[in-house]
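New to this. Help decode both lines:
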Amino acid sequence: MIYLDYQATTPLAPEALDAMLPWLAGPDAPGYANPHSPHRAGRAAAAAVEVARAHVAALLPPGGRVIFTSGATEALNIALAGSGARALAVSAIEHAAVLDTARALDPDLCVLPVSADGRVAPDVAIPYGTGLVAVMQVNNEIGTIQPITQLAARARAMGALFVCDAVQGAGKLVAPDGADMVAISAHKLHGPKGIGALWVRDGVALKPLIHGGGQEGGLRSGTLSPALCAGFGAAAALCKSRWTSDGEHVERLWTKARALFPDWMLNGSADERWHGNLSLRRPGLDVGRLLSECRNIAFSAGSACASGSGRPSHVLRALGLSDRDSKSTIRIGFGRYTREEELEQAAAVLNAAAQAQGV
């Protein structure tokens, strides 16, 4: 299997697994202790959680706190619902974790449009009285990078909070500048599934969605998993130490991939995007058939969250593409552990299968 679905999830880093294993130990070792318990084993587990928190915080802006959650979806729900804001404005290409939550909170939600290249204009119209603006750093389907600094500054000037879904950019791009809250997920940066984080700027008050033991500063009750935290922390630290080499590797893969798919059209900006994402369409392509015939390659029809629904992508629709074009789109994602020869092999198979369809 050639894995080319890095936007859906990334392979677990061996270093992250190694960091997790001691905290998954059986009854003959102290690693299974509850990090909220006051005894020595509990304090050791709590210390491991705080080490991990510091590593995750290093990927995020200064001047805030990191709250561990079950993932970015929970983090975004805390940010939007916990803020108490009711007049919301979000971009048209947000992940469902933002769009669906925002719609539930504000029936009169303002949806900010994007250009044909998949970007929100820095001067986009934001209604007077908006209490919260949410725009993602990097889109999960088409990889476009948004002008977060300018948009956050505008939100701040009008007295609104700014929330940024940084799931696809965390550990790869500089942290969003000017945001009040930032959500990230461990499994998108080579950490384990089941854990994410919400960074909250100092001075921003939130109400909890989950009540109980008062963990995570009273904002997110529930027993933390030292193993998941340790894996998240190790993955975050590895992103920092491999920042340059990972970036250079992705650029090499991007250059090669663009040459390997000459007969496909690129969705979204070619320049203002994360180059580990390749969203391509080929008019008339039957993507369902392509997925079936290329079973030894892991790639996606649009986003992993929506690819099984049969619904056209709301992201591609927002770019102005027809439903027919949307349904002829595939998404290829690559990164740290992708080898160039794997990309070459996958391209040969995908191109041959597409050509066999006569498109």
The chain has a mean pLDDT of 95. Residues 2-9+243-356 form a domain with the Aspartate Aminotransferase, domain 1 fold (CATH 3.90.1150.10).
